[in-house]
Predict the 3D structure of the following.
Amino acid sequence: MKKISLNLENKNIIITGGNGFLGTQITEALLNENANVYIIDIREPKKRNSAKYFKSDITNESKLKKILKYLKSKKIKIDVLINNAAIDYPPSESKKNNFKLETFHNNLWDKDISVSLKGSYLCTKVFGSYMSKFKKGTILNISSDLGIIAPDQRIYKKSSFIKPVTYSVVKHGIIGLTKYTASYWGKNNIRCNAIAPGGIYNKQDISFVRNINKLIPLGRMANKGEYNGLILFLCSDLSSYITGSVIVADGGRTII
C-alpha cells in the first residue's frame, strides 16, 4: 500500500494576509512541510522566515499582476493559492464601538468589502487564471463559522461590542466565491474549497470567552495552530477529490 503523505515539499504556495494572526500559523505549518511560501500582505512580518514577502494591496489588480509577472519571470508555477486576508474586528473592552447597523458608516462598508471580498476575488482572478493554464491547482478560501450562521451579539454584551455587518456579509460571500470558482474551473482541474473556522483563543476578555464557550459543544475555542492539519490536507493531493466544499471546524458551534 502506498504511504500517505502530504507531499507539499517544494510546492509554490501563495497566502494573502500571511503576516496576520492566522496567516502566520498557516505559513509556519507550510514551511515545516518544506513548501515554498509567498506572502502577500500590507503588513511587514513580525519575524523573518524563509517565506518570500510581497508588500502589496490585494485590492489593486495592477499590483497583483506585477507579482504574477515576477513569478513568471522566475518560472515559478503556482500550486496553491490561499485567500486568507481579511479585516476582522475582535471584541475589545477599551476600543470604542461604532458598529451599530443603524449608524454603520458607508466608508467602512466599502473598505471591508474591498479588502475581505474583492481582494479574494482579484487574487482568484489573477493567480487562478495562471494556475488554470497548467490544468492543475488548488485554491483555499478562509471563511468563518460566521459565514454559516449570524453573529450572536449576546456574547459581547459586557463590552458593548457589536460584530459588524460587513464581517457576516464577507464570510458568507467567500463561500459563494468558493462554489463559483470550483464550478467554473473544474474543467481545468482547479479545486477550490473553503474552511469555516471558529474563533481561536488569544487571551480574549474572560467574559467573552465564557460566553462563547457556552455555545460550543466541545466547550472551548480553538487552540493556536489547531487548524493547520485541516489546511495542509486541503492544500495537498490527499484531498484530490474534494472541491466546492465548505469544511466547518468550529467545535460544533454551528450544529445547534
About this structure: The first strand starts at residue 12 and ends at 16. Strands lie at 12-16, 36-41, 52-55, 80-83, 137-142, 190-197, 246-249. Residues 169 and 229 are 27 Å apart (CA to CA).
